[in-house]
Amino acid sequence: MCGIIGIITNKKRDLVPELISSLRNLEYRGYDSTGIALIDGTVIKRLRRVGAPSDVLHAEEIAEELEIKEIGQSIGIGHNRWATHGKPSERNAHPHIDCSGDIALVHNGTILNYESIKDELIRAGHMFTSDTDTEVIAHLIEDKVAEGLSLQNALLATIERLEGSFGIVVCSTQEPARLYVAKRGSPLSFGIKNDSLIIASSTNAILAHTNTFITLEDGEYAELAADENGIRYHVGNFLDKRRGITKKPTTITDFSIDELSKGEYESFMRKEVYEQPAAFRTTLLGRYDEQTGDAVLGGLIDHEETLRSTQNIITLACGTASYAAAVGGVLIEALAGIPVRNEIASEFRYRTVPLDPKNTVLFTVSQSGETADTLESVKEARRKGYPTFGIVNTVGSSIAEAVDAGVYTRAGFEIGVASTKAFTSQLAVLYLLALKLARTRGMTLQAGRAFLAELERIPEMMQRTLSETDELMRAYAEKYVAKNIRTINFLGRGIHVPLGQEAALKFKELTYIEAGNYPLGELKHGPIAVIDKHALSVIIMPKDELFSLSKNSIEQILSKDGNVMVVTDEAGARELKKGSIDVVTIPTLSNPLLYPLLEILPLQLFAYHYARALGNNVDKPRNLAKSVTVE
Ligand code: AGP
User: Which of 32, 88, 228, 370 is deepest in the core (most CB within 10 A)?
Assistant: First the structure.
């Protein structure tokens, strides 16, 4: 959570527009307040605002408001906040400064022991101007500098006092050609350009400047310098006190800057919903063999024996990624017959899972690769000895680095806070994984080939589903907004239960209306009590062997005056009584286990249109951040 940017250059220029555009690229990480600071000659100039950078930071006004004296600057830092300590307000927005105003810093993470440090600093005479945990860092550094330490050593001494997580970028008027940074638990990378170094909490903000960057690991700090001798960086480790660490820069080539813009779409979410067929196809590319009817997962090639012999699988994830994992779990059990335990990462770390690491493997799923709950649980799993594999979207992210091996999803950058294309790309890998496991356990060659043939058709079927259901979902959304629906539940059986969980999450994230989900058969065991004319039940039920049972449940809901919307395939649609229920038809597939890959699309669109009809921001829903880097 929170977006951090820092720019240092030896070619002085107006850094305000660059800071603002970087903060816009980081907006998905936090958007309740924002701010920048620059070294203007010999003083720090700072501006902070409540709101998202694209709404409240405008370059022309800022230069005037800050009364910038110099023609250009060498150092600027900026921050988008997702409030944890203290309400979103100007006084709590970053950058924070020390008492003298000579030191400015931005921070991502949580300082757990800030209260006792704050008491001590107040007793020593420091003046606090915010309610944040972050501000103690500025005052601690101030004290150390006053004792005669260089800014770097002051930062290192300060870090020793901090419990919790941090990505910190700090500058001082005393060293106007240096930026100092340190990382523990919150992501930080810096980009390398001819005349500048750009440090950020996500490569999104770096890639607009350069495609070459270095990712810092936990325990690392860096000094970034830019002066008449050029740009330089120096990395060290504050845990093992190593001073000079050689780090190989990463260069990303398969990236287009267009990925960071909305293009012709009115929102990132809509763009990403429509990118799903392409993202799904890209994720499958080169990862199966039609001849052998098998998946080819290069990242797991050294672990095939472990996968062949494993008797249990644990999946570990949060939110949308956990629902993708749960769909994958049903699939793996159905196709490969291996018991799968779907663990929520925020729980896993704190409880006992009675499975033997010798015959169990763990798959973790994450879009960002930075989710703190997931990352910490992966570390815990490794400590316990589980072979740990990743299904991660962000190359080089902390989770991708923490696992033994893995398979990248290739969804590209996902900017919309509500995950869409990352979900279906995670399913793409999980479907391949289920096939791989099944082919070593009795699935026939013909069945493997048929499964793959159908998987190959999915992008085309996704495209059809999107174009055939988009307008309909808008009409249904507007109808139910007008009806003032008070209760909504997403129901299904079997593999459609976790799909309903994801649909419910999408709906509540975007509409701010509580949405439930449970297996359809549970309806009669209690939940039916909530059904009345203000309740909507969305039932996911393509034509399969449980279709008739599901039809009974529809009758039960209708008899209580409830509203029903059904997502089904063409054969299912033919058997449903139109008029009394709303029907959403998706293309027919021959293997019913593949339906989740299509079912989610109209349900994403339903949440999207419903939120738009309510006037909500679909890219930046309230209270959320894209990457949850606090536990
Ligand atoms: C999805 O719409 C959510 N914003 C959220 O549930 C997300 O999927 C979850 O926080 C996990 O994130 P990750 O995939 O980056 O680990």
Answer: 370
